[in-house]
Structure formats: C-alpha cells, structure tokens
Amino acid sequence: HTLLGISPSSVSLSDFIKKRVTHLQEALIPTAIPNLQLLTGAQDLLNASEAKSVQRQKLLRSIKRLEGDYILVDLGAGNALSVLDFFLMSDGGILVVTPEPTSIENTYRFLKSAFYRRLRQCVSSYPVKNLIDAVADQKNEMGIRNPQELINATRRINEGDADKIVHEVETFRPNLILNQVRTKKDIEIGFSVRSACKKYFGIHLHYLGYIVYDQEVPHSIRRRRPLMLENPRSRAAQCIMEISSKLANGQQMSLRMSGTSPEGTIPL
C-alpha cells in the first residue's frame, strides 16, 4: 500500500481468514488507479511455513473466484509450502531475479522445489510419489539425474502416472525477469538460467526480459508513487512496459534482443 500512496487499511486478508468478512471481494480496497484494487495483509499468510493447509486451500479457491482481468499475488521469497502452492496454482508464475549469485542460486532451489512438488501432486501412486521424493536429491542412489530418466523409472511402476509426468513437464512454463540489470552480461544471465532449467529439469522457462537499474525507482518509492505514474518515460518504466507486452502476448526474450541497443530493447 505504501507504493500506491495508500494508508493502512481497516480491512485486510486476515479479516477474511478470521471470518470477519464473508467474501474475499469484501477485503479489496480501491486505489487511485482506475480498475485496480488491492488486498493488503497477505504476506504473513502467504509466506508462513506453518500456515494450515485448510487456510491455503480456502484462500486459493477464493482467489480463483475473484472477478478481474489479471490477479497478481506477491509471494515474496522462500520455499514455504504456501509460496509453492500459490505459485503452482497460477496461470503464469513470474520469478523476479537480480543478477547476483545468491539470487540465482535461490531461484534454482525454488524452481526445483516447485517442479517436484508439481509432479508429486499430479500422480496417484504412492510408490511413484516416494520415487519423486527420492529423485529430488540429485545424488540419489538410483542414478536418476533428469526428467526423462524419472519418466522411464515411473513407467516401470505406473504407466498412467508416467503420462501425467510427461504432461506436467511439458506444460510447466514459469516466467523469468531480471531486475536491476547494469550490463549486457547481466542480461545474458537470463538465457543461462533458461538453458540450465531445460537441461536439468526439462522446464521450458520463459525469459520475459530485464529491468535496468534506474535511480528513478527509489525516487518514486520515496514519493509513494508508482513508477509508471511518476516517471513513465524512465528507463525502468520502459522495460516494464516491454515486459508487460511480452507477457500479454505470450512472447519472451530472444538472443537477438540481448544487445545494449537493438530495436526492442532499452539501452543500458
């Protein structure tokens, strides 16, 4: 709410969870931006590792019933089950990463956790579930190192579950955005992450693009104004507009677009 210049609201997600309001729609608050509403107080539940499964499922169902063209859920960082489940239920999960080793390592860990949780949820055979739990360890004694080997091993247990895994591998397509980019080398990290995900998990990661480091971002935060309203001509705002267009049209970054100034990119 701070970034939108909104004072703390008298109603929040906790009111819905504690049944002080009946419908999630009642907890939404208006903003100064037409057709944009905000649900505050979600972080504590979404990121809590101890959040009860029944609470997660109730909130998941309620979010799906909300009326809106786009519903964005800010999950924060971490591998808590709440975060994984909300990410996996989305139509297009988006990972925002900075070009730093710690951020990239955390991204790999998150994708690995999300990937194997997705597979485990789709199968019905407990022996296959146990197999997935085992191969989540890259050093597993069975020597299974990639999705195809997992599929082959699953077929020996349950043909139907093997087909389900094939489908989940093919349809799991998370999105990646590089944030606070300063150099061309930073931009190319996105392609490296995409290649690694394909090699080790068989995941088709969509690299949507990058947002350049821009002093206008902290300036807009201090002014409690969204960057897109405060300075829509700033370099970071242009990057966001380009990424939004790709996301809406199902596009992603290509190697041709990774230079510092070709058409379709924002100069660094």
Largest pleated sheet = 3 strands, parallel
Beta-strand fraction estimate: 5-15%
Q: On the 0-100 scale, what is the average pLDDT?
A: 86
Strand order, sheet with most strands: 3-4-5
Task: Indicate the low-confidence ranges by residue numbers.
Answer: 257-264
CATH T-level fold name of the largest domain? Rossmann fold
Oligomer: single chain
Please count the beta strands (DSSP E, at least 2 residues each).
5
Query: What is the N-to-C succession of helices and strands?
Result: HEEHHHEHHHHEHEHHH
Structural class: mainly alpha
Which CATH class of the largest domain applies here? Alpha Beta
Supply the CATH architecture of the largest domain.
3-Layer(aba) Sandwich
Percent helix among the residues?
Answer: 40-55%
Secondary-structure map with pairings?
Blueprint: H1 13-17, E1 29-30, E2 37-38, H2 43-46, H3 53-65, H4 81-89, E3 94-97, H5 101-122, H6 126-135, H7 147-155, H8 159-171, E4 175-181, H9 184-201, E5 206-212, H10 216-222, H11 227-230, H12 235-249
Parallel strand pairs: 3-4, 4-5
Antiparallel strand pairs: 1-2
Key descriptive features of the protein:
single chain, 268 residues, mainly alpha, Rossmann fold, three-stranded parallel β-sheet, two-stranded antiparallel sheet, 5 strands
